[in-house]
Amino acid sequence: MPWYLYLALKQLFPTGKRLSFFTAISILGVALGVATLVVTNSVMGGFGYEIRRMIIDTQGDVQIRARELIGQSGPVLATVSKVPGVVGVTPFAEGVGMLEYGRKQAFPAIMGVDVNRVNDVIPLNRFIRVGSLDELDDDTVILSSQLAYTLGVQIGGKVTISSPLLLERLKKDEVFLPRELVIVGIFEIGHQQLDSNTVLVTLRRMQDLYGLGEAVHGINIKIADGLDADLMAKRINAALPKQPEMVARSWMDANAEFLFVLQMEKHLVSILLLFIILVASFSITSSLLTTVVRKTREIGLLGALGARPREIAACFCVQGFFIGVLGTACGLVAGFVFLNQRNNILELFTKLTGSQETLERFYQFSKVPAHIESSDLVVIIVGTVVIATLAGIFPAWRASRLKPVEALRNE
Fold it and tell me: So where does this one cross the membrane (predicted)?
């Protein structure tokens, strides 16, 4: 082992002590910065990951919409199904209606799905908590969990649904009676807004409620794993008939602005929290400078014995490196332990403050998601170690500049 490496370790871990005070403070500062970065990146990345997953699980990888309605969806479905890379297609119709149970009313979003095709694109079976999607027909309905709880309905109960078409018919002195449907299922996606305000009916029932005839509002498409959604949207657009004006858009293109805001928030928070690491690096610099001042005579003695300036400098740079490595390791452990207990901590916090409903309303998730990209983790680890190593450069430069004779005269 080179002497300067041995001396660096001895200064960090003096004989008879596990850790010097200055070393412990420096490692703690780095560890806190790393733990904060890991937790913040994981939580921010978790929200982004869950939102992306939710978009794909509820809308598919690619979605086709027309300027108005898609009148004949059958030929379009057949055309799109033949595009290489497409593994599933399903039409849908959507709108807002009035749902009534007893004397309670709600105005949820109503989604009409093709029961025979929907699971090829959207994994609705995975979200059904009570009942079954197989029981959904033109006389039944499936409610989201929070909506069912708000109305106080259960499986087998009957609800009345009406749409804005009722008002249009009344203007023409026509009668359009609300439809009474039996509840056969309750689903939960995990997103507060969808779980509190969504109703699933068959495509035919939705077409009846809105007077669409055979028309649909759009087509959801699932592509094979590993394929680029934007590239597949271009292929599908090339295969679509020009009339009516239909456009296929990838889930990223359709939600580009929202996804950009999420990514920007994540990067801005990471940049702001990076200042914690920078503050810790000044702590490392300060402690190493103190060591240089305290050990001026020893450094002069090393020079007198033949130590070269770059070897003396390396002694202090290595100390910064080891502090960075140890602080990063401790920070990673602390960060992942916190993430493992994040929902328990959040539950305790919301119980003490009574803010569970507020968090769900604004952040849309009942639990705190966590997901960190391996690239982000590498950047945190490498960046922290590099910053800590660079923090030792000025003390190292100061030590290497000491002249042996002047250093030995130091009192």
Answer: 20-44, 268-292, 312-339, 377-397
